[in-house]
Amino acid sequence: MCGIIGIVGKDDVAPRLVEGLRRLEYRGYDSAGVAAVHDGVIDRCRAEGKLVHLDDKLKKTPLRGQTGIGHTRWATHGGPTERNAHPHATDRVAVVHNGIIENYAALKAELEQHQCRFETETDTEVVVHLITHHLKQGMKPVEAANAAFDRLEGAYALAVIFANENNLMVGVRQGTPLTVGYGEGEMYLA
Ligand code: GLU
Predict the structure, then answer these.
(1) CATH of the domain at 178
(2) How many independent structural domains does the chain possess?
(3) What is the CA 129 to chain-centroid distance, rounded?
(4) Which tens digit of pLDDT belongs to each residue from 91-122?
(5) Is 31 in the pocket of ligand 1 (CB under 6 A)?
(6) What separation in Å is there between the alpha carbon of 97 and the centre of ligand 1?
(7) Residue 72 CB partners (closer than 8 Å, separation 6+)
(8) What is the share, in percent, of the chain residues with pLDDT greater than 70?
């Protein structure tokens, strides 16, 4: 029962992402992380254990960016380590995920044939590489995300941000809840 949150905001969103995750803490989790796009570049910060560890890291090294995603993880695939903590990312895409990608092993084998190198033991990482693969094929971000979602089996809610897209977030859900909220010039996913 993890928590995911996303904000397309008007100022640096990392503190609000952490605050949002704090409100979802009751769901239980083993690690946490946030990622944001700043000047077109994705950066992220992750930590094992309680949110306070993530918060401490962010105080030492603030994360810039007005569009970002956050996650508290309840590990299903791979241990509760920082390396396996969400968001998962390539230099083009970052993803947070609630749920399980049932067909991840087949997708991983396929992606490894395209020279994708996996860094984690999670099922989630296939989503990152699938979207990246489609971007490299020349698809636009939303098209690449949709093409990736079409391949996924299981129950999931996902939030995705993209390098060079300072105001774009894509969300999808299948079998698990995901809500969208609108503020003044802002958008939220949870
Ligand atoms: N299956 C994913 C993982 O193990 C997501 C788990 C969750 O919903 O927190 O990383």
Answers:
(1) 3.60.20.10
(2) 1
(3) 12
(4) 999 999 999 999 999 999 999 999 899 999 99
(5) no
(6) 6
(7) 2, 3, 21, 24, 25, 27, 29, 31, 32, 51
(8) 99
